[in-house]
Amino acid sequence: MFNRLRRKLTSEAWHSHTFQRRYKVTGKVCLALQVDMTFSLFSLLALVLVLPSSFGHRQGTIGPVGDLVISNGKVSPDGFKRYAVLANSQIDNTLIRGNKGDKFRINVVNELDNNTYVESTSIHWHGLFQKGTAWADGPAFVNQCPIVTGDSFLYNFDSANQAGTFWYHSHLTTQYCDGLRGPFIIYDPHDPHAHLYDIDDDSTSILTLSDWYDKPAKLLGLPTGSNSTLINGLGRRNETPTHDLAVVKVKKGTRYRIRMINLGCEASFRFSIYNHTMTIIEVDGINHIPYTVDEIEIFSGQRYSFVLNANQKIGNYWIRADPSVGTQGFENGINSAILRYNGADNVEPDPVLIPSVVRMDESLLVPLENPGAPGLPEIGGVDVALNLAFDFSGPQDSGNFTINNYSFIPPTTPVLLQILSGAQKPDNLLPKGSIYSLPLNSTVEISMPGGIRNEAHPFHLHGHTFDVVRTAGSLVYNYENPVRRDVVSTGNTNDNVTIRFTTDNPGPWFLHCHIDWHLEAGFAIVFAEATKKWNDTIHPTHQWDQLCPKYNDTL
């Protein structure tokens, strides 16, 4: 019931206005816990008493306060053993959780010690706005310098009014493809969709999808497909047809909120559950009007919550996640997991084909609250309109992407530090050609072409959600009630996906392809939003100030 806090958090924030107490609860002692006096009452109780309601059934769960220990270790999620980069001794599954309004204090401890892999690290909290805490967003060389091995860094940020399904991952080179990723859930005690489901818990309701590779990420170049698909951290390959699959257990007559996250580095997945429909209620942390489908295509970085009604005959049913690249299909249980009703035999379902009757149409997703895109209801009806030109050059396995003729090359000094230190003026930020200055409180429209390298590219904007006024596969512009999210597929040739947002969050915010190999190949730009406000609104900790000197000492 009670987890000991094994490592003392070391940020300056923990040494000011703190107190130390000794608590004894049912014979177990929480020793010398240091509690920030600015914590909300909930956060304080969660830390001191380690209440079961704050820590779910998943192994290694932390939050809203705790240590995330990054280390190397051997894993065999698909039957093939290899070293990986672990978060609290796991890939994909270590959960960070809290409640709406919580202040998060996540101490990242770098214990990486295998030089076949990247040994520094940084962590991005995908989907969280980081208003006033751009220094904690995580992208290396944009918002911070990496955390060197043997060091730790306290990410200290407020969830404000956000709730929903998020995730965390390394944001240094392609490190997260080696396993450094996991779910990040913020529960809303007043969820407007709560009447639609009965269960939303850590052990049943979180479903992660990912692609998995045999080789370390930094050795792969630009791969075109993984060796296996993992669902909740388990999977099979053709060479391991009897390896364990993930099992999702349900009780007949119960409605479950399933929080599905694509943690993958490359593949999108066509997801379905045999003989069951899915009612989508959340998209990338934003509540949407319920929309029932049989199949969902989910791209890297995206999240969907859907209601699963366990209303079928007691038995076992295939869960399928067919990847866009790599080995496709379901022979021998690859790309699969099992939905098992209580009372069903502990066996695999019979092989079946899953006909897709109603595939999700992204253009039919409508926000539940405050729908409508900012600006005027016409093309270019905004303060700032940008048409991005994408290109790719060089060999297919090792070339570079460009946006408006520039490939993103990480600067030696993080973009945020360039302004805070006075090293660069706002109109001269580095890397040249990849920084776009945006004024405060302006409406912005971004148009992005599809089909570069004959692929659909999922683009993610940090620090914001956006309204997708033109979705992939559509010729129609919807300004009235477009889907709202933070990752969108640019689609195929002849698509022109268009998004809108408002600049209400000063800071440097990445816009990049979430196929991590493509980001490493330069497929990104940075929006320098309201640079004149950075020194007034963004106040990094002393520990953040030390990241760059420590990292530079390792070069």
Describe the overall structure:
This protein has 555 residues and is mainly beta. It folds into three domains: 12-191, Immunoglobulin-like (Sandwich), CATH 2.60.40.420; 206-364, Sandwich (Immunoglobulin-like), CATH 2.60.40; 384-552, Immunoglobulin-like (Sandwich), CATH 2.60.40. The chain has helices spanning 41-49, 415-420, 516-520, 534-537, 542-545, 547-552; strands at residues 18-25, 28-36, 65-75, 82-87, 96-99, 103-110, 123-126, 152-158, 164-170, 181-187, 206-212, 228-231, 247-250, 255-262, 269-273, 278-283, 286-293, 296-298, 303-309, 316-323, 336-341, 384-387, 390-393, 400-403, 435-438, 443-449, 458-461, 466-470, 484-485, 487-489, 496-502, 507-513, 524-529. The strands form eight sheets. A six-stranded mixed β-sheet has the order 12-11-14-19-16-17, with no helix packed on it. Strands 13-21-20-15-18 form a five-stranded mixed β-sheet, with no helix packed on it. Strands 22-26-31-28-29 form a five-stranded mixed β-sheet, with no helix packed on it. A hairpin with a 2-residue loop joins strand 16 (278-283) and strand 17 (286-293). The radius of gyration is 23 Å and the shape is globular.
DSSP E strands, number? 33
Please state roughly what percent of the residues sit in beta strands, choosing from under 5%, 5-15%, 15-25%, 25-35%, 35-45% or over 45%. 25-35%
Secondary-structure content class: mainly beta
CATH superfamily of the largest domain: Cupredoxins -  blue copper proteins
- Tally of contiguous helical segments: 6
For the largest beta sheet, what order do the strands appear in spatially?
12-11-14-19-16-17
Shape: globular
Helix content: under 10%
How many individual domains? Answer: 3
Q: What is the mean pLDDT?
A: 90
Describe the largest sheet: 6 strands, mixed
**Oligomeric description of these chains:** single chain
Query: What is the rounded Rg?
Result: 23 Å
| Low-pLDDT runs | 1-56
User: What is the second-level CATH architecture of the largest domain?
Assistant: Sandwich
CATH topology of the largest domain: Immunoglobulin-like
**How far apart, in Å, are the first and last alpha carbons?**
44 Å
CATH class category label of the largest domain: Mainly Beta
